[in-house]
Amino acid sequence: MLSPVTLCGRFVCLEPLSIDHAQALSEAASEDRSTYRFTPVPDALAETEHYIDLALTDYKRGRALPFAVRHLETDRIVGATSFFDLDVFPSRLGGTSGSSPTDEIPPTVAEIGATWFASSVQRTGVNTECKLLMLSYAFDTWKTVRVTLKTDARNTRSRTAILRLGAAFEGIRSAHSPASDGGIRDTAFF
User: What are the distances in angstroms from CA 10 to CA 7, 67, 73, 117?
Assistant: First the structure.
């Protein structure tokens, strides 16, 4: 299993997600929810606790490394993000196919996602710094060879933000997964 890590920059600290973040995350999610059309975001404390429980279950299975995002200027929890779909390729430092990553055998590939923020910090440097901290950790510490970012193909704000990070657009997978609005989602891959 990967050890929890804290990643800090100028504006944010990504803290290992715990049930202790439930109330603060619930409050962050309760701000203006109109921008959550394409993103599943927990609504109310019970949903937030369930959201955290699912993320921690994925962590215990070696499939994710979830974070709560602390805004340093306000000392508030303002959202969540995660490494997930962590995979170790067989040739990686003695890893075997399907093995979960560990500190000694880090992930060969990863995805960054399950990201959402309180409306008060959207369109600020928070998301960019979170992604840059995570990308730096993945490539510099784990020596990961690929990090995937993906979003609902209709989410132009998210697609634009991903491109601003320097990610390469790889294409759209049609009918990829259920959409958060109840339809079927085409997914843009980067």
Answer: 11, 17, 9, 17
